[in-house]
């Protein structure tokens, strides 16, 4: 068997550069980060040989329209250049075997992938590296000239050309890259990425003027005259960096991953789904100003800025690599934020109240998963209740039985009536609220929490005396017959406010049950069977008619059956509208029918009055023109057909 000769992959560098520029990096600006990072790493490497070696990084702008980055780092021999610089994917900063096991990347270096220099081809057609090694003092200085088409030249320089070990990288811009190398832009970018770099970087323009890049030590590491001065400095930093003055600042310090920084508590509410961006520096270099993975989801009320040595970047170096370390860091930062909240509850109630005012939604989201926080903060959280917007503790003191609605509309409709009957109701319709209120007894034993159901409301409303109930018997029987069609019971009660003629109390379970029954009626045999087997005996809705309401008293006295039925349908329809629940087609038909029916009666009564019939209320008898004789009812049923 003959063996085919082996071949080597060819790499089209232009294609690779396009790939990086358009898909790996978010912007061409990263070229400067890569250059600064290589310079810092080179100095780190040299200092490992000689702790007193100079640490200078100088960026010269306006050099033939491009830039020059000089460092006093470890430098490269000709062999190093071939091995590391001219081989894509090879890096001197990984384990000795050069493998891609990222966990083996040496702790001290920022780079590790061996592709960073390629980012320079996004803005430059040609990169020149002149270097002299600090490892081998006899090795000549070397010049490498690489082009974006993948070709490079290398030559040894005459001795004496480069006085000191170190490296100088020169970029000459591409036609479409010059804006990124323009002096002011370079200064801004260098400060953006390099403010916390551990070695000083300076920018020298073509007039020789020098600007500083670093802004170290980090604002959280500086010495201040007093805690107040520190607080103010941190607040000033948040203002200039994030454009807000924080409610408070939480120090972050996780020595195991060399992480230090601060979490700023946002002064305004944010939507729980909108996660704030965090500024993450890796060994001083800014990795991202919008990293989201750093804190747990629930902590959406902070924006952090941190510098860490222990986390790893993705290859684009614009996000954090998701691994166990990152997950542990996230948990630890979460724990720190939780401790801060616990601390507030113990020692700074004013700030806690301000925090809860702004972020109660966040805290509610958090308390669902965290029993300790639940115990600590649930009593402080505000809820919409029949006593107004109050904390649960305050509410539970006034109401040993806390009733909670399942929806906002249920609360809107029932709350005033329940309140006047002495019931304490919490609006459970907002996100998390019902779940949290139900957990109150865990925190405050002795308090009872129950869902508000139709029976509870009607049981707390005043019953009417037997004589009045008897007098209304005919009306009630008719009302029950009418409402039975809508799976609704009818009860007569006295309640406040007097102005409400009737209310419909219902719950979601009952509504689902009715919906299921409707579907099962319309479905074919198989589905009807399945839906039928899902059925349960959910409570029926209840139309509670207010005996104190003057209109009800009048309606109860209407002798005419058709008008009385239309009036009952109208009452039901109005209560339905007040309940603000979604209307079904049958509900629309009912509203239409009763409205048109009432208009018919009103028009007929007006006609009777105008012709001088003199029958008083115009709906009392079956006499000529009276609507009850059939006209209105017929029209109403016509209307039913139209819908
Ligand atoms: N200023 C410099 N001084 C000394 N060596 C350098 C310098 N710049 C680059 N190198 C060498 O070239 C190699 C490749 O650099 P490159 O920026 O492409 O990748 P890297 O820094 O190793 O990893 P990353 O892709 O994560 O940046 C480096 O590993 C290093 O050995």
From TrEMBL:
Spell out the molecular function terms from Gene Ontology.
ATP binding; ATP hydrolysis activity; ATP-dependent protein folding chaperone; unfolded protein binding
Query: Keywords for this entry?
Result: ATP-binding, Chaperone, Nucleotide-binding
- What InterPro entries does the database record attribute to this sequence? HATPase_C_sf (IPR036890), Hsp90_fam (IPR001404), Hsp90_N (IPR020575), Ribosomal_Su5_D2-typ_SF (IPR020568)
Q: Which Pfam families match?
A: HATPase_c_3
Biased composition range(s): Gly residues = 615-629
Q: Does the keyword Cell membrane apply?
A: no
Q: Protein name, please?
A: ATP-binding region ATPase domain protein
């Amino acid at each position: 068997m003959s063996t085919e000769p082996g071949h080597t992959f060819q790499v089209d560098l232009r294609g690779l550069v396009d790939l990086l520029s358009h898909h790996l990096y978010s912007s061409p600006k990263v070229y400067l980060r890569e250059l600064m990072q290589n310079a810092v790493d080179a100095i780190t490497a040299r200092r490992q040989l000689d702790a007193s070696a100079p640490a200078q990084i100088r960026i010269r702008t306006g050099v033939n329209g491009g830039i020059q980055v000089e460092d006093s780092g470890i430098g490269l021999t000709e062999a190093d250049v071939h091995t590391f610089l001219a081989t894509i994917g090879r890096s001197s900063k990984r384990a000795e075997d050069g493998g891609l096991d990222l966990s083996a990347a040496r702790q001290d270096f920022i780079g590790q992938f061996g592709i960073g220099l390629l980012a320079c081809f996004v803005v430059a057609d040609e990169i020149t590296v002149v270097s002299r090694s600090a490892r081998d003092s006899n090795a000549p200085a070397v010049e490498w000239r690489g082009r974006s088409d993948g070709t490079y030249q290398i030559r040894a320089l005459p001795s004496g050309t480069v006085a000191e070990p170190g490296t100088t990288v020169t970029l000459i811009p591409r036609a479409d890259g010059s804006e990124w190398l323009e002096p002011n832009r370079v200064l801004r970018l260098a400060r953006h990425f390099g403010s916390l770099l551990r070695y000083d970087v300076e920018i020298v323009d073509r007039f020789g003027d020098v600007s500083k890049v670093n802004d170290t030590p980090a604002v959280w590491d500086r010495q201040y005259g007093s805690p107040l001065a520190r607080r103010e400095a941190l607040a000033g930093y948040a203002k200039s960096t994030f454009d807000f003055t924080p409610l408070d600042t939480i120090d972050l310090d996780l020595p195991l991953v060399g992480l230090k920084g601060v979490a700023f508590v946002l002064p305004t509410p944010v939507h729980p789904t909108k996660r704030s961006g965090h500024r993450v520096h890796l060994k001083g270099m800014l990795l991202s100003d919008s990293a989201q993975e750093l804190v747990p989801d629930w902590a959406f009320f902070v924006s952090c800025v941190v510098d860490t040595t222990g986390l790893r970047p993705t290859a684009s170096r614009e996000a954090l690599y998701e691994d166990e370390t990152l997950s542990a860091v996230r948990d630890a930062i979460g724990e720190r934020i939780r401790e801060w909240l616990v601390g507030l509850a113990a020692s700074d109630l004013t700030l806690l109240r301000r925090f809860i005012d702004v972020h109660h939604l966040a805290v509610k989201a958090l308390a669902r998963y965290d029993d300790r926080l639940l115990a600590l903060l649930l009593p402080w959280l505000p809820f919409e209740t029949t006593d107004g917007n109050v904390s649960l503790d305050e509410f539970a003191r006034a109401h040993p039985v806390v009733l909670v609605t399942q929806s906002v509309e249920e609360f809107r409709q029932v709350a005033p009536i329940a309140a006047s009957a002495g019931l304490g109701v919490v609006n459970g319709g907002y996100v998390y609220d019902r779940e949290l209120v139900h957990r109150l007894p865990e925190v405050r034993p002795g308090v009872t929490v129950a869902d508000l159901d139709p029976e509870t409301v009607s049981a707390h409303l005043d019953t009417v005396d037997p004589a009045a109930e008897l007098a209304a018997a005919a009306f009630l029987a008719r009302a029950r017959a009418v409402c039975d069609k809508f799976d609704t019971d009818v009860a007569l009660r006295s309640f406040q406010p007097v102005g409400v003629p009737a209310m419909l109390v219902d719950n979601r379970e009952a509504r689902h049950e009715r919906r299921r029954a409707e579907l099962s009626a319309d479905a074919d045999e198989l589905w009807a069977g399945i839906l039928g087997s899902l059925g349960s005996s959910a409570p029926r809705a209840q139309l509670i008619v207010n005996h104190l309401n003057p209109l009800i008293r009048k309606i109860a006295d209407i002798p005419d059956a058709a008008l009385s039925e239309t009036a009952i349908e109208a009452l039901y329809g109005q209560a339905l509208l007040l309940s603000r629940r979604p209307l079904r087609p049958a509900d629309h038909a009912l509203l239409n029918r009763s409205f048109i029916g009432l208009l018919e009666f009103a028009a007929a009564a007006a006609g009777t009055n105008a012709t001088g019939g003199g029958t008083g209320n115009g709906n009392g008898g079956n006499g000529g023109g009276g609507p009850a004789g059939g006209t209105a009812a017929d029209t109403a049923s016509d209307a039913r057909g139209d819908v």
